[in-house]
Amino acid sequence: AVMAVWGAPLEQPDHARRAALATLEMVHRLAQLNRGWETRGWPRLEIGCGLNSGPMVFGNMGSEQHLALTVMGDNVNLGSRLEGTNKTYRTNIIASESTVRAAGDAIVTRELDLIRVKGREEAVRMYEILGTGDERQRWEPLIREFELGLTHYRSRRWDDASACFERALEVKPGDGPALLYLERCARFATDPPPPTWTGVTVMETK
Prior knowledge:
6 helices
């Protein structure tokens, strides 16, 4: 794993934008590498990136025998948790609401879920970073169908939600989050969640 930090030791007001664009470039470059590797008969590689923004402790940590320049704190841990959720949602880049808000129009995102991660009591709204700001029109049909599906899903309208996620798959065949929600809708249609269910997903990622 690689941990990258923006905004320290020198202040970078656009740290969230830089981080988001860097992950998009990583995924783009990996796609290029995969095409070359496939022609050689080599296996594909996939990566997952988790982004979070907020106050962190920055500096040399460790002991007299071994010091490392790093960051620590709850916001660092959340970034790591988000990275791990990519496997569940079959995505490459997941960011917290704080990062998405700070990055602004530089990126295009879609809301993925409200999750409760290990070590946190409050739910976290997380997003998939789909592309750069100038690609917004390309992604709008997918975002529209998927987010309408989320609205139906949280209102327990499983059939309506499934129809939206099916249309999302028509826009983007093989879309991981849409496939995941179709599985959830099918399960909840036969085994509904309890009345206290608020649409929050409990994640057990380390």
